[in-house]
C-alpha cells in the first residue's frame, strides 16, 4: 500500500485515469502539490478538525489536506471519473478520507463529519457562489463550520472582502462580514491551473465569529441588502421604496441619508435599518 507521499505525481494520475478537464463541471485542476499544501495550511492546524472538501477532482488539494494532518476529510465529487484516483488516496490514508460521489448542493455534510469542521475547496465556478451564500446563511449561528478556505475567481473574492465605497461592495460583502472575518489569503494567476481559466483566482479565508458584529434578524438583513443592491446606482429612498411607505424616516433613523447609495452604506447602518423592520 502506497503512503500519501509515495503516490504518483498528479499529471500521471490524470493521464492514467483519463481525466481530461470538463468545462461544464468547472474543472480547472491544481497539479502542483507545493501549491495545494500551501492552501491546506491556510486554515491552520487541522489535526483535531474534520474537513469538508467540495470537488476534489484528481485529489491535489485532498492530498495536501491529508499530508498536512487533517483529522478526516469528506470529499464530495460529482464526476465519477475521479473516483478511482480518489480511492488510491483513501487507501494511502486508512480511515481518513471518505469520498461521496454526488452533488455538493444535495449532500448534508453533518451526516458524515464530526465538529469542529473546516471547509476547504477549490470550488467549481458554477456552484461556488451558491454554496458560499448557503454556508453564510444557515438558520442558526454559529454555523456547522469554523472556517471556510475557498478558491474563487478573483472578482468574486473581491466582492467578499470589499468595504463600503469599493466598487465590489455588495450583498456578498455584507453577508460575509456581518458574521465572519474575511480576507484574501492567496492570489493565483490562471497558469496555476490545468487547463488555465480566463481569469485570475484567489483563496478567501473566512472565520465564523461567535455571533453577528451588529444585531439584526438574518432574514430582514438579507431582504434589505438584496433590495438595496438590486438597484445599486439609485438613491436608497428610491431603491427601497417598495419595502415600506415610510422608508425615508427609517433610513434617517438608521443614520443613513435617504439620498445615499447602497454601495456607500456601512454594515452597521444596514443592520440598524433591518432592525427597524422588526417593529
Ligand atoms: N479540487 C480539485 C483541484 O484543485 O484540482 C478540482 C477543482 S475543480 C475547480 C472543481 C471540481 O468540482 C471538479 O472536480 C468538478 O468535477 C467538481 N464539481 C463540479 N460541480 C460539483 C458539484 N455540484 N458537487 C461536487 N463537485 C462538483
Explain what this protein looks like in three dimensions:
By secondary structure, the chain is an alpha/beta fold. It folds into 2 domains: 4-208, Vaccinia Virus protein VP39 (Rossmann fold); 218-278, Helicase, Ruva Protein, domain 3. Helices cover 35% and strands 18% of the residues. A 7-stranded mixed sheet has the order 4-3-2-5-6-9-7, with helices on both faces. It has a two-stranded antiparallel sheet with strand order 1-8. β3, α4 (83-92) and β4 (97-101) form a beta-alpha-beta unit. The termini are far apart. Bound molecules: S-adenosylmethionine (SAM).
Question: Main attributes?
Answer:
35% helix, 11 helices, two-stranded antiparallel ribbon, alpha/beta, 279 residues, single chain, Rossmann fold, binds S-adenosylmethionine
Amino acid at each position: 500500500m502506497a503512503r500519501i507521499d509515495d503516490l504518483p505525481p498528479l499529471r500521471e494520475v490524470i493521464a492514467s485515469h483519463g481525466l481530461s478537464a470538463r468545462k461544464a463541471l468547472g474543472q480547472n485542476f491544481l497539479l502542483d502539490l507545493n501549491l495545494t499544501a500551501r492552501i491546506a495550511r491556510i486554515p491552520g492546524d487541522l489535526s483535531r478538525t474534520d474537513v469538508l472538501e467540495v470537488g476534489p477532482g484528481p485529489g491535489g488539494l485532498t492530498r495536501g489536506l491529508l499530508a498536512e494532518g487533517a483529522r478526516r476529510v469528506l470529499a464530495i465529487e460529482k464526476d465519477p471519473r475521479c473516483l478511482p484516483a480518489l480511492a488510491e488516496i483513501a487507501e494511502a490514508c486508512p480511515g481518513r478520507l471518505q469520498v461521496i460521489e454526488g452533488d455538493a448542493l444535495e449532500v448534508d455534510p453533518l451526516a458524515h463529519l464530526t465538529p469542529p469542521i473546516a471547509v476547504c475547496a477549490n470550488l467549481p465556478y458554477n456552484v461556488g457562489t451558491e454554496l458560499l451564500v448557503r454556508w453564510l446563511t444557515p438558520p442558526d449561528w454559529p454555523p456547522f463550520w469554523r472556517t471556510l478556505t475557498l478558491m474563487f475567481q478573483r472578482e468574486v473574492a473581491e466582492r467578499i472582502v470589499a468595504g463600503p465605497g469599493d466598487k465590489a461592495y455588495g450583498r456578498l460583502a455584507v453577508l460575509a462580514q456581518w458574521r465572519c472575518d474575511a480576507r484574501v489569503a492567496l492570489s493565483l494567476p490562471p497558469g496555476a491551473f490545468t487547463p488555465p481559466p480566463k481569469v485570475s483566482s484567489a483563496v478567501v479565508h473566512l472565520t465564523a465569529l461567535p455571533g453577528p458584529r451588529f444585531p439584526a434578524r438574518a432574514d430582514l438583513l438579507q431582504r434589505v441588502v438584496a433590495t438595496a443592491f438590486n438597484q445599486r446606482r439609485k438613491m436608497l429612498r428610491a431603491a427601497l421604496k417598495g419595502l415600506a411607505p415610510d422608508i425615508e424616516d427609517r433610513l434617517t433613523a438608521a443614520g443613513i441619508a435617504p439620498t445615499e447609495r447602497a454601495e456607500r452604506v456601512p454594515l452597521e447602518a444596514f443592520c440598524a435599518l433591518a432592525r427597524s423592520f422588526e417593529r
